[in-house]
Amino acid sequence: MKNKLVSEILSLKNEKDAVILAHSYQPPEIQDIADHVGDSLQLSRTAASTESEVIVFCGVKFMAETAHILSPDKTVLLPEPDAGCPLADCIEVPALLSMQELYPDALTVLYVNSPADVKAESYACCTSANALEVIENAPSDEIIFAPDRNLGTFVSRKSDKTIHIWNGACRSHAVADLPDMKCRMEEWPDAELLVHPETPPEAWELAHAVLGTGGMIKHVGESSAKRFIIGTEEGMVYRLRTLYPGREFIAGGNIYCYNMKMITLQKILDSLRKLEPVIELDPRIRERAYAAVARMTEITG
Ligand code: CIZ
Predict the structure, then answer these.
(1) I need a labelling partner for 268 at 20 to 30 A (CA). Which of 32, 47, 116, 259 fits?
(2) Is the pLDDT of residue 300 over 90?
(3) Fold type of domain 87-169+284-300
(4) For a substitution probing ligand 1, which of 40, 61, 126, 171 has the most ligand atoms within 8 Å of its CB?
């Protein structure tokens, strides 16, 4: 059954001139059929440079929106329209505008895990990998950082700027199971614990390194350790196992995103057949959101 679905997807993908992009938090069978697997920004950049007419984005809504922002002439499909992001839902335009009124000299740096209309009201976007660089290069000593409070706290400890942090959080990472991480560390004392900055500060204190998913991939490549405990969404464990078959990866902290797992092979097939659901944005919002994403790229290259 699974093989039949996969071969139908692959032949329809060619027929429709589509490319399949999958986030590293996607389930193994989705990562396996994807043309590219990566973090939201890498995938959006791939979306911007692809020759294909149709982009099937296997991830959550803000990621597919970012792909559309960078690649407005392509058809961007999100196979499950309800695959949202509770972190992105922590912020809405009127509340951000009120905070900006409170701190009129501050520039807003917005984690890409946010809705397009909020991006449109921001100075620049950032990812977990480049948040500090974007903040340091923003032309103000006062910053509003939104919506993830843990990432905001993480970067504010490394910056001398005044940073007003939005009180939002990723529902999966913010409740990382620290006793589970400790348990894995006792079980595998030679393993390095890598945790995502969306986890709480108590997890960073246990960890060998605090990194976004791209940073984790790079770190493993440069480390001499043989084993790693991975403190981010468990899909990343499969991604790392695929990239580094000679190393061992153990999930730590029971971090699981239900929204990421809403994409299935059947939904990808249906989406390719009907060429929907299509991601669409008001062009005025899309253009202003593009300016915030482009500013990040100008700063970080
Ligand atoms: O931006 C992304 O892709 C996410 C959700 C996490 C990360 O650290 O890459």
Answers:
(1) 116
(2) no
(3) Rossmann fold (3.40.50)
(4) 40
Looking at ligand 1, which atom is closest to the CA of residue 215?
Answer: 8
pLDDT at 278: 98
- pLDDT surpasses 90 at 41: no
Ligand 1 close to Cβ of residue 127 (< 6 A): yes
Query: Is residue 162 predicted with pLDDT exceeding 90?
Result: yes
265 contacts: CB under 8 Å, gap ≥ 6: 2, 5, 6, 9, 29, 30, 33
The answer on pLDDT for 297 being more than 90 is: no
SS3 229: strand
Q: Choose one of 25, 111, 127 to mutate for the ligand 1 pocket test, by most ligand atoms within 8 angstroms of C-beta.
A: 127
Fold observed for domain 177-254: Rossmann fold (3.40.50)
The two tokens of residue 219 are 């770190």
Averaged pLDDT, 94-106: 98
Topology (CATH) of 2-85+260-280? Rossmann fold (3.40.50)
Same fold, 2-85+260-280 and 177-254: yes
Alpha helices in the chain (DSSP H): 2-15, 28-33, 40-49, 61-70, 93-102, 116-119, 131-137, 149-156, 178-187, 201-206, 213-222, 235-243, 265-274, 283-300
Place of tokens 């942090």: 165
Nearest partner of 255 among 187, 170, 193, judged by Cα = 170
